[in-house]
What does this fold into?
Amino acid sequence: MPTGIGNIFSSDFQLKEINPQDELIAKDKMLGEVLKIVNDSPHLTTAEVLEKIRKQPGLSGIFLGDKFGSFGSVLQPGIFDGSTSTTPTTPTTPAPPATSSGISQNVQLLINAIPIAHEGHVITSEYHNSLRDALRAIAGQIGLTVQPVSTARILTFAPNFMPLPPNERGNNIEWIIDLSKASVPPEISGDTLVQGGLPVQLPDDAMIQGMIVRFSRASKTAPDPKVFKITLNRLKLDSEREVNATPILVFDLKAEKEKFKQTKTIKDLESDDDTDFSTNLSKILNLSRINNETHQYFVTAEWNGVKESAKFAVNSIQIVCQA
It folds into this structure.
């Protein structure tokens, strides 16, 4: 038997219908046909080559049932690329296709997703947001740490105003609370102050962005009360009285007859002449940053009027925070 042929045709294989006298000739012929199939199939896997050999007329007899046996050991990658090495190699997963610019495929896809602006067309939020996504991906590829995008949270509170301590004149009364609102009592006598406070739990270290108050007025024709005011306050934990609280956002609503949803943002403080920190940005930032370790936060509602004054009701309070 020629050198090397015995390694291919091992005990795992049988020759069918081969005369013993012609065995060497048959084996050489088969080997030649097998190598021709291998050389003609450079892009096929070993299993695919073996399957092709199996289906070749005249060669199927070299297999024993479905076993490839040691015959497959000669069909290693070295056979396909002309290498003389017979050491088996472990297949590796091909790397993702690289772009000509050297950036990752993910970044390239994000860049491709940025819409192309055309003269006269409206630039929508899609342009801005897709550009942000691409920039974040590029920053991540070059090793920069990109902070998570801050998100706004809207916290909604029912106006369940709690009683406040009596004032100096002793003429303050409580709001009437039901499931959907807090109302000024319909029947009052003389100069009356309706007061109440609502503790609010806000996310620590977030920034207060604004507040939204929804309310209603019982009569458009009735005279305005002296006071109808909703205030978001901050109070130091070691303070004993709410009178020591610092107002953050103040809503003066006594003259409102049509618009029953009012919004006030922290930026309004910069032009509010009634505050003593209107020109001091550091104080504004300090006041808007929530610090639950040193302060508590609450909303106060105050109505002051007489019997004929327009009665108001508060429906909901929402505080907008930026985490």
About this structure: The first strand starts at residue 152 and ends at 157. The longest helix spans residues 23-39. Residues 1-18, 62-96 have pLDDT under 50 and may be disordered. Residues 76 and 88 are 6 Å apart (CA to CA).
